[in-house]
Amino acid sequence: MAKVLYSATMSLDGFIAGPGGDMQWMVPYLGGPNPTADTLVDQIGALLVGRRTFDGDDPNRGTDKEGALEGAWHGPQFVLTHRPPTTAIPGTTFVTDLRTAVAEARKAAGDKYVNILGADVAAQALTAGEVDEILVFIAPVLLGDGVPLFRHPGGTHLRLERRLQAWPPLASVLWYTVM
Question: What is the value of pTM for the model shown?
Fold first, then answer.
């Protein structure tokens, strides 16, 4: 059965997007040697994406690396939204509730990961107990404001156990199991 992974690149001060959803801050930290990132795409069987992320900024827009996971991702994606489009988009399924989205994505992923992209859908999945692992690439930059890795109004306590930590040149890696 597929595991659900929340992966993101984050600034040292905890933001995965800048103000207004800006992702261009990531450009200097993409590419380069990172064995964890380099092997991740082959471990993913489906994406679970929030609608703002699906419609949002792409730090690789206009390049050959445009698209999910630097353009390397080709496979099923499930977009959690209250606003499904009226026109179908090939390879993309729009789902209106979290439990159905996770179940469909797990089925599509087979024995690989369902990779979550987007802070809001990740927060929903984390608080619902649907996330198995968290992978964070920490870029050496301070943004000061933006979209945090995890926000849950009123707070929540999720215990994590470290699986991996690595220090490649461009972004440090922390990988956790959600307990």
Answer: 0.90
Helix boundaries (H) for 57-109: 98-109
Q: Which fold has domain 4-178?
A: Dihydrofolate Reductase, subunit A (3.40.430)
Token couple for 18:
């800048």
Report pLDDT digits (tens) over 13-33.
Answer: 999 999 988 888 888 877 777
- Residue 88 and residue 143: Cα distance in Å, rounded? 36
**Cα–Cα dist 103/96, whole Å:** 12
Residue 91 vs residues 42, 44, 77, 102, 125: alpha-carbon distances, Å: 17, 15, 6, 16, 22
Place of tokens 């926000």: 151
160, 144 Cβ separation under 8 angstroms: no
Q: Where are the domains of the chain?
A: 4-178
What b/e readout covers 96-108, taking b as 16+ CB neighbours within 10 angstroms?
eebeebbebbbeb
pLDDT tens, position by position, 146-164: 999 999 888 888 999 999 9
